[in-house]
Amino acid sequence: MNSSTASALLAPTPVHEPIAPLLQTDLQGRTVARFGPFALESHFQPILSLAHGRTVGYEALLRGRTDTGLAISPRQILGHPRTFADRLLLDRLALNTHARNFLALDQRQHWLFLNVQEDVFLEGPREGAAVRELLESGVIPAHHIVLEVLERAVSDEVALQDAVDYYRRLGCLIALDDFGAGQ
Asked: Does the pLDDT value for residue 14 go beyond 60?
């Protein structure tokens, strides 16, 4: 995809509040994001290919801590936002935190698997800020990003196809998590 095609796909996105002030670096040099009362951290799980007999990527897993240092579950973090704007902000922070921490691991030859909340994923063609911001930052190229969305949580197949087509045009790969489990 040439740069004018990418610009055309990314252009209609509304302007959102900058997230840079919410991204911090901890004492170990890792990026940590602030989301309300939580500090968001990245952990990476290897994705192994049996066919290739090796690691082909890493899935970014969201972890969090309270201000007192207490570990909290991803479910608690994902249950915190009450509005779409808050869920979008959470995904923007998580994607950027994961990409920066992945880059620090120097795993550029591998794919980075990123989970995206279903409604944020489906709004991508119209809203797009979460992934657009990541691609525009240049932290990681689109062809190294695999966006994961839970298939069973998506009931609008037309919107799902539109979103998949949009992200593919941007150069990202798509993985439907739990595909067919709800069928």
From this structure: no
Extract the tokens encoding 68: 């007192």
Beta-carbon contacts of 77 under 8 Å, excluding residues fewer than 6 positions away, are 35, 38, 40, 62, 64, 90
pLDDT single digits (tens) 59-79? 999 999 998 999 999 989 988
State which amino acid sits at residue 38: F
For residue 35, the Cα-to-chain-centroid distance in whole angstroms is 15
Dihedral sign for Cα atoms in the order 49, 53, 56, 61? positive
pLDDT tens digits, one per residue of 94-119: 999 999 999 888 887 899 999 998 88
Q: In 10 A of CB 51, how many CB atoms?
A: 7
Secondary structure class of 67 (helix, strand, coil):
coil
Residue 20's alpha-carbon distances to 16, 24, 121, 137, 174, in angstroms, are 12, 8, 22, 11, 26
CA distances from 117 to 124, 160, 163, 177 (A): 11, 12, 13, 12
> Please, which residues have CB within 8 angstroms of residue 139's CB and are 6 or more apart in sequence?
96, 99, 100, 103
